[in-house]
Amino acid sequence: MKKYAYFPGCSLEKMAQSYHMSAMETTRKLDIELQELDDWNCCGATAYFHVDEILAYTLTARNLAMAEKAGLDLVAPCSACYKNSYFTNKNLKQDPDLADHINYALEEDNLSFSGSIAVHHLMEVYVHDVGLEEIKAKVSHPLKGLRVAPYYGCQIMRPRKDHEDIESPQFFEDLLSAVGAEPIDYPGRLRCCGGSLILTSRDAALNMVYILLQSAVDRGATVIATACPLCQVNLECYQQQVNQEYGTNFSVPVLYFTQLVGLAFGVPPKRLGIGRELVSTEEVLSYIEEGEPYE
Amino acid sequence: MNEKVGVYVCHCGTNIAGVVDVESVAQWSAETLKNRDVVVGRDYEFMCSSLGQELIQNDIKELGLTRVVVAACSPHLHEQTFRTACDRAGLNPYLCELVSIREQVSWVHTDKSAATEKAKAVISGGVERVLMHEALEPLQVPIHPATMVVGGGIAGIQAALEIADAGRQVYLVEREPSIGGHMAQFDKTFPTLDCSACILTPKMVSAGTHPNITLLTWSEVENVDGYVGNFTVSVRQKARYVNIDACTGCGICWEKCPKKVIDDVYEAGFGQRKAIYTPFPQAVPKYPVIDVENCIYFINGKCKACQIFCPTEPNSIDFEQEDQLIDIEVGNIILATGFDLFDSTRIPQYGYGKLANVFSSLEFERMCNASGPTNGDIVMRDRKTTPKSVGIIHCVGSRDKNYNEYCSTICCMQSLKFAHLVIERTGAEVYNFYIDMRTAFKDYEEFYQRVLEEGGHFIRGKVAEVTDAARTPEEEGKLIIQAEDTLIGRQRRIPVDMVVLSAGLEPRHDAKEVAKQFGIACSANSWFIEKHPKLDPVSTMTEGIFIAGCVQGPKDIPASVAQGAATAARVLARIQQGEISLEPVRASVIEEKCSGCRICNDLCPFTAIIFHEDRMVTEINPALCQGCGTCVAACPAGAITGTGFSDEQIYAQIDGLLMLNLEQPLEAVAG
Amino acid sequence: MATKPTFRQEISNLLFAAHGEPLKTCIQCGTCSGTCPAVEFMDHTPRQLIAMINADLKDEVLASNTFWYCASCFHCTARCPRDIDIAELMYAVKRYSIWHKTYPEDLIGPVFSGAFVKTIIRSGRSYEPVLATSYIFSFGPREFLKEATTATSMMVKGRIPVIPPRIKRLDNFKRVIGRIVPVGGPK
């Protein structure tokens, strides 16, 4: 039983609740315990960094300090939370003066940052810590060659320059293959979905979403898999607006990778939060090969 | 002691005099160090000038000086100057010591009075040390008249020819089956658009037939022993499995060979060869080699088509042939092993290896070459379709902290050449994507002008990505190059049929191992290091080893040829003198004190240490030793001493620096 | 005697915590702008913005919409051949702009960020319905309707939070913030 400090992030409460549900269902099956960080606060997303950099670091440092107290590595399902946590961790470790400054503030909550834990994106847990062999072994309802477009998005990889494959990662495809899906190769997999621009600069964000959807559809994707709540909302909930703006008629379901893994593990769709989408996922469900019924 | 020491303090204009009170220091030396055998202290504006040197020389003659201390700049610059000046005046040059009061005093301190005091201390140290110096004679080492050139590209060939033409023996060692190097792969050369093979092959033929050149192709250096003038190099001549005494180079064997292999070397992966092959038609020598990893006979004992069809009597194919290990004695070695092309798969966003119609520069050269896999036709990956538009990307893997920070110097000209060839042969639209146009040398800028006149499009912007994801009907079925056209400030997507990547030049993948083998140094990015980047680009810090061509850094053919010729001149000068003088500043082992612990053996960066198993003592080879002092410091028994940097000399200098010599006689302190 | 910092120095000072290479090493190659997915909507490309900062054209930089259109995708940073963190630079210019209140009036970005920060200081978490108010009213009637439709669909599927969340140790949290920004947070 491997344990992690789980930092769900603000979106997973309601907006991306299905991500949370499917993460819980699937990690449980893989003997992973995601212990929710008690009293976690918002990571600051991008907006906080627009206002005050050090304060933004402090927000994330509080979460890191709490994970350190629990003695567990931090796992974030949301790419933005992941990126903020990873880089706060890294920058504070490299800059003791900055860490000192922030620790002075954290004293008020009886916390202290020391850089003793590591930060992971939820997908890393599946791919690196659990490993594809074990995941394959747990598949009871392979996805029958479902054509999935793996959408990495931006912040799961960038701006980490220490990772050698940031322009050509394969781990998401490997994960999808392990559960019986057919990952498709499409050029938009590393492009941006627009993130918070969907609210502040809608025209640009809709354009980015349009290009992404077209890119996936052109290569024959049946469903797009994501690893970040912002990406999922932008790609799915705003498809209607993209259609209106660009005269297209996209109707591509967008699911979290944990939901697809959950389906392959035989978890009933409802328990994975399937059914809360704005774009119907009926077609996806028809791809699940019959296997052992879920206990 | 009873020596006569002259102290000379240089102003160096205001470099020293601006911070240190040089006149008072000179005076102080003459007065305060009088009982330390100093008989004269002078200051002068530029000691290194002829007049400055004359001051010293006159004093040597008139005052009978037996030691000289010059307080000026770093010994790196003028130690030789002052030593030679003393030599000319009849004083042994090693009795002259140069102490730095510029780099170590005036250039690093701002407090003038403190700096002046420090200068006095430095001079005091120099005086104490020089009193311990001995007259030394340089080591004379004979030079073997033969030379080895490693690498048969244009730089190596040039060097070999010049030495051979001067009547001296040359061994030209080349790893591939034929000499020629990368130049043999090119189609045309910039800026003249000469056919590369046409200008190269005459030199190759000369090298192959020259009575003074022994060609050792399909060979590699395995071991290097010895030192300048006396190297013994072990060369492995790999088995060709072809008897070169019988073979006529008729080519029937490779015609009949059934096994095709992708040629990764000469054809840059763009074309094929057989398991028995010569790399190209004008190969020198003409004898083929068998690639044992791909030859059917060597894999499973079958086939033997080459042997069956070989027309010569006796048969030229000899499957039993073995590698030959030859020991060759030479006096000097020239390394001209060239470069490797940057691997463009390292930049996934350019699509090399994934998108079919993206080509590397060497692949494109082979395509343009008339004897290449497409007979010189510029066609797409399907080997049929002529492209209507071609994009040429500069700076692939160069000028980039993510890959190689340096500029590869030749790619802009090469890209222009490609643009010209495409326009000339296909009339296609050509787009060059560049950051800066580097066309610095003779006729290069004019060539750029020419391509502009021929209608090439130039977009200033480093390419962000090459993709096949079409967004508009015009982009369907094309490769789209996305870049910011910085001169108009807009991101543009240019659809083209074909993309050529002007990939950068990198050191050979085994450069570090090769450098170690020859005992020379590599820079951090593995180019071989020259003795001085401005004034001595073809020598190395190791006497007797020279470098020429791209092994020293990216450069064009004229520069490689010039360097090849330069190394030949150096070598010939050495050979002609018959002997070389080596600096006598070296370490030596006091045998009686050596316990045979061998701690020093692996520490020597110049592999100058030999261990005698029979006597259990270490000996230092004076010709290889550069006097770095590492072994001297490491020896736990203090058994190693350095001529020119003995323990006594260094302790004396320290005492002088601490001004202990002034309070009491030195002997009482040294203990 | 102290010298007035150039605009570039001021911006570089705002890149305090995120160490990046200095802007002065930019060779203006254009990789960042060639990569940027939002560049079509920017009045200056990221590369041009850097050139303008280096040329001390403070007012023009601050009047530009470039950095407000940055999605923080970090692709420019990943590819820059001089290792300059351009996305982080965009954050720095945003911070400068908000701090000195130099942003154009009709821009949603700064208003949204301000509302976001207020929500977090108040409760430790973000809350979409309150955030929505920061931008929805600057939409024209057509866009307002579209957004209302999207929001309604999401609400029907149970994806919009109703009760605003709060962290438990909110008082401590506010004191933590107080030690960083003495007056208790930006206004």
Q: Which quaternary structure do these chains form?
A: heterotrimer
Measured between the Cα atoms of the first and last residue of chain A, the distance is 20 Å
Number of domains of chain A: 2
Sequence stretches where pLDDT stays below 50 over 5 or more residues of chain A: none
Number of helices of chain A: 13
CATH architecture heading of the largest domain in chain A: 3-Layer(aba) Sandwich
Q: How many beta strands in the DSSP annotation of chain C?
A: 0
Structural class of chain C: mainly alpha
Which runs of chain C of at least 5 residues are low in confidence (pLDDT < 50)?
A: 183-187
Q: Work out the largest interface and the residue count of each chain.
A: A-C, 73 and 70 residues
Basic shape of chain C: globular
Instruction: Sketch the major β-sheet of chain C.
Output: none
CATH fold-level assignment of the largest domain in chain C: Fumarate Reductase Iron-sulfur Protein, Chain B, domain 2
Q: What's the CATH topology label of the largest domain in chain A? A: Rossmann fold
Helix content of chain A: 40-55%
| SSE ordering of chain A | EHEHEHHEHHEHEHHEHHEHH
Query: What is the total number of structural domains of chain C?
Result: 2
Q: What does the main sheet of chain A amount to?
A: 4 strands, parallel
Task: Please report the number of helical segments of chain C.
Answer: 10
